[in-house]
Design a protein that fits this description.
Keywords: Membrane, Transmembrane, Transmembrane helix
Low-confidence stretches: none
Shape: extended
Mean pLDDT: 82
Radius of gyration: 24 Å
Structural class: alpha+beta
Distance between the termini: 74 Å
Number of helices: 4
Oligomer: single chain
């Protein structure tokens, strides 16, 4: 069983490496491939090319230019990177390295038997006890003054083809949800911004009249 420090190091270093690699790849993509990826995930439409250095895309009715500069790419790369990061982490959680947070007397799982016991969620930086949980026994024993546990397990050897396909289905569902919710969130944010600008303009006009 890994010590808690090694477990935390693996967890955070994995996320850091995934983020770093994903952002490097996205920034290195050609403009055309980046636009194709944006269209496949968010359904942004390519409107026209301006030479070889600019592409205009339609984002929920608004047009934006993407060029080879970092400043124009950054918002789109950030959106893509965040979406892909969540998808990759969900896949890893289900097929490679599974983690479970326990707050009650739930039974141990033979898939994720390695556990760290904490006094509470707020003291999760220092485990009271590290142990290998026995299947079908409570993760948090009733005779211990603890209310929170984190258990992990390397589940890749136990995965079947069906398990992997099911997890890929979950990841596809996440991407579909993003595709559906992003336009709604964007339009809501745009309406809120326009409303705020209208209020500011109205106040400015009122101030000008008073002067």
């Amino acid at each position: 069983m890994l010590s808690y420090g090694v477990y935390v190091a693996i967890l955070f270093s994995s996320v850091f490496i995934i983020v770093l690699v994903a952002f490097v790849i996205l920034f290195k993509l050609s403009l055309q491939r980046l636009v194709i990826l944006l269209e496949s995930v968010f359904r942004f439409k390519q409107v026209r090319n301006i030479g070889n250095d600019y592409i205009v895309i339609d984002v929920c009715g608004d047009q934006f230019e993407i060029s080879k500069t970092i400043s124009t790419r950054l918002p789109f790369v950030f959106a893509l990177g965040t979406c892909l990061l969540v998808t990759i982490l969900v896949f890893m959680e289900g097929c490679i390295f599974s983690t479970r947070h326990v707050y009650s007397t739930k039974a141990c799982s033979d898939r994720i038997p390695n556990c760290y016991l904490f006094k509470s969620h707020f003291t999760s930086f220092r485990p009271l006890y590290e142990f290998i949980c026995e299947p079908n026994k409570p993760v948090i024993p009733s005779n211990m003054s603890a209310s929170y546990a984190v258990c992990y397990g390397f589940v890749l050897p136990d995965q079947s083809t069906i398990d992997i396909l099911n997890q890929l289905g979950v990841c596809t569902g996440i991407l579909s949800l993003v595709e559906y919710l992003y336009p709604l969130a964007y339009k809501f944010g745009r309406q809120k911004k326009e409303k705020s600008q209208n209020i500011k303009q109205h106040l400015t006009n009122q101030t000008s009249r008073l002067q």
